[in-house]
Amino acid sequence: MSTTKQWSFSESVANMAERAFDALGLDSGVAGAIKSCDAVLQVRFPVEIRGKIETFTGWRAVHSAHRLPSKGGIRFAPIVNQDEVEALAALMTYKCAIVDVPFGGSKGGLLIDPRQYERSEMQLITRRFTRELVRKGFLSPATNVPAPDMGTGEREMAWMMDTYRTLNPEDINHAACVTGKPVAHGGIRGRVEATGRGTVFALREFFRHREDLDAAGLSGNLEGKRIVVQGLGNVGYHATKILQEEDGAIIIAVIERDGAIIDESGLDIQAVYTHLVESGGVAGFGESKYFEDGLSVLELDCDILIPAALEGQITAANAANIKAAIVCEAANGPITFEGDDILNQRGVVVLPDAFVNAGGVTVSYFEWIRNLAHIRFGRMERRYDEMRGQHMAQALESMTGSKLPDIVRDELVRGADELDLVRSGLDDTMRLSYQQISEELHSNDKISDFRTAAYAVAIKKIARSYLDIGVY
Ligand code: GLU
User: Fold this and answer.
1) Which residues are catalytic?
2) Residues 272 and 395 in one domain
3) Which site among 103, 212, 447, 460 is 20 to 30 Å from 43 CA-CA?
4) Which of 185, 203, 221 is the last residue of a domain?
5) Do 250 and 353 share a domain, yes or no?
6) Which residues contact 305 (CB under 8 A, 6 or more apart)?
7) Structural domain of 47
8) pLDDT tens sequence across 94-123
């Protein structure tokens, strides 16, 4: 494979998968079936905005349907195109397989700058786009289930669900047609933070593996580790806030749209986020040093670099200058194929997007199940568990003759609520997936990087499902 060509995003993802096909020695027919995008819908639709008719363009790509529904977010962005949506749909296929979420891969996009429109206009546009997707068979609880992505959130998901319900009043499972909804409309607790928290669970598990840590030239745990983050959106914000508050990591730089800020003694993420929301940028935050050229700060010396913004940020142009010991891909596709090659050659450990940011779709899976079950997790057993905890505490106290410390008693008698269960399920998922990837990395001598190992784990599972069912 030549590295002189400029690959498109979808080619870049396909090339990365190709490395794993080669390492596994997979039959080229099966590899071709896995790699190709099954279907892409492009829609154009008019909406009347402020007395004028505007035409919008949107896409929904279904990369795989070996498991249904096909799953993946919908982004609303001023730069989105078919190639990008196909690349992101492919990533969803591998992502779901890595974390054992029984879905195919899909992704959608609408070409729009949401900041240019009022809330009521966004509602009109979103509802109209949803009608197109539903009518053309690209949105339903059984076949294709969108979720939030860049430029979309709970609000858009609520409008999409309501539009689907209006078109399908008989579908008792209508709430499962999208995930990432507000909790009051069938959403699940912990979904908003899920991708960020999943990123933290991924890093914590990495730090539990001595051999992998040694290879990165790191030791200890996350406490005191120096972190640079690009993007303080939903993913970057939650990941760094948790890393700072729960793990004692030091966030030394934040890169945003308007530039970057650096403070070697550590930035208070909540305060930076508030400043960002209020002023629209990071410039002028406290005592920090501001750099207009944000991209150059990706090259800052640090332990962990977390790109959590756009795709294509680490390329052939800057990969040689990256000084981080680990690059933890919280965004989708932040490293190009060429950039990845360079980082691999230099021995920089890359924890790949298809694993690191899979927390979002994992909790989406929990939400989808909750919607089909029509019951909140923990509703049946919480008080029962509390009662058992009470009995246990009483038994312990009467056997030992001494009173349990309040903190121990409180922990023992507390029944798990939905958020506890979601976090526990997410933690377990990220740990098990990491273990499978690490095992693949160490057991296959043709594989020397986490990305190829992660793809190999995914591809084995997908190939098995193609071979078991057959191709008709
Ligand atoms: N948009 C998110 C992603 O890229 C979430 C997808 C989902 O929850 O279906 O993984």
Assistant:
1) 107
2) no
3) 103
4) 185
5) yes
6) 227, 228, 230, 298, 322, 324, 326, 327, 328
7) 37-185
8) 999 999 999 999 999 999 999 999 999 999
